[in-house]
User: Fold these one by one.
Assistant:
Number 1:
Amino acid sequence: MLKISINKIAEDLDNILDGFIKFFNVKTYEIIEINNDDLSLVETDYNLSDYADCLQKEILLAEDVLYSDYYITLPTSYDINEYKIMQKFTSLLPDFLVDVFQSAIRRKGAFRNFKQLLYKHHLEEKWYRFKKDELKKIAINWCIINNINYTIEEE
């Protein structure tokens, strides 16, 4: 029986690029990333020979993702909502930092403000551990909802 590592999914969820969607192949248990433009293209009446050889492989993969039953979309950055993860993290900080962090993430440049405060208060390592744990929870929930077999590794 195939199983996917929760750490692998969490790592992929932490590395979602703008303009891309990650998919899970239920037959091979592999995660792939497809450009939104390629997905849009295959929904049109396109001619594969109009594209360079290096792009044809990506276009064919996008077509396979779109028209087969073997792929499930992984949670998107919208589903993950890193801002909510930041809010949750700040609520767990010592009282004297809660207001400082919460005020910073409510202002313009919330992510930049948050990162600056992490470095100022030497909380980077604690944040990255917390974020990784939250992404693992999202990954486990996604696996359960989609009936995907998974493993949880000790770190």
Number 2:
Amino acid sequence: MEQANELAAACCVEKTQVRSPPVCPNSATRGRSVSWETVAALTSGPLPLKTAYLVCEDPDCDVVYFSVDGRSVVNRSNVRHLPLAKAGLQGQACFCFDHRLTDILDEIDRGRQSRIVESIRTATREKKCACSVRNPTGRCCLGDIKKALAHANSTKGA
């Protein structure tokens, strides 16, 4: 009976222990998961360690990718493209079809719905993209574009 109680206690303790999410070793910003294939495709120089990576989207941080285990960090100077969150308004918005955020904003400023965003949506639906290896976040750019446009619109009147 005593052994059963010890096992139950160990089980309950294990379940209540919560691991804190991995954060960037430089900025302490919580990272977002990205595949090793994305990191390898966009890193210049030797291939990074084959392990689990996260992307740091803090615009002021020099770190772009860091490994979950803390053994590997990839800085701005060692990547081909920066995520939109780090590049700002002048940055690449869509890496598959080579669109800049400023081009999308120009269309909207001229009072038109963005044909660029619609063309990205169409091409994505038709599976003509390769976001997992072209976009530094390893995800489709449309979510990042939407956030960046909302941010640009909110700061316009300020």
Number 3:
Amino acid sequence: MAIYPEPLPPAPPRGRRRPSGSSVQRRQARLQPLHARADPPDTMAKKKDTTEAHTADEPRLSKHPRAQQQINKAKAWGGLALFLLVGFVSMQKGLPAFTVGLRALAAGMVGYVAAWAVALVVWRQVAINEVDALRARLRADADAAASDVPA
């Protein structure tokens, strides 16, 4: 059951009326099909084409499950550790509770970002070393298979 049995009438226009010429022009522009309208000037920055930027040889941390898990843990522990440390030190100095909370919150955010940056640097090196070790193992296996083939 509806509250209103029929739709409400449209609200009367508010404010000053616009000149009729501009409303006619707007109506004509609205009636044109989208493909016939002139494109607005392209003033926005172009996006870089990132499809070719990453090659198959380059390890991606976003695809590495262990890296993602440990980076997330590092961010959480870094933010929490700095939050607690700065909060404790601020309380020991006798600062008001609001100031303690504000400083601890800001320090927690800094710790979060710093831990993220450090974890990314470490995991990039780990991923590169894993790829190099895999290549060396595959090369050794290929050499061993090539030497086993009778001439």
Number 4:
Amino acid sequence: MQPHSALPAQGALPRNQRLVLDALRKVRGPRTAYELLENLRDQGFRAPLTVYRALDGLRDKGLVHRIESIKAFIACCEHDHEDRPAFALCESCGAVVEIEDAGMVSRLESICARTGFKLKKAMIEMTGTCAPCASGAGSGTGRGSRSLPGRDRA
């Protein structure tokens, strides 16, 4: 994954990648490739493969993350990072918060080194309740409006 500072301007992205990234930035919370396809049909997207190819390119550039536990994608927050982010997913409102902590990554790498495990990829996803939902204030951080699988929204 490239640090954001090494990336071309968004206008330099291929058309499909630019449209998918724009769509992810406009919605609240993570979206599946099929949800993105539905949102982009009027832009000429007809097949899931078109969306998946654009998402793969955006992931390679570090502009999009896949939330593995819910099989959905989210635009990267504006951090200029090279580390692997972690994600906090609210079970109440579906909010997803990207967390960057270099110390967390180095601790994981240290644990792997002690055990002789060669770390290739790490995905840290935590589920729980965001602060606004925990306090009863409502709809979360504004990052998500999508329920997590297995959760019915009231």
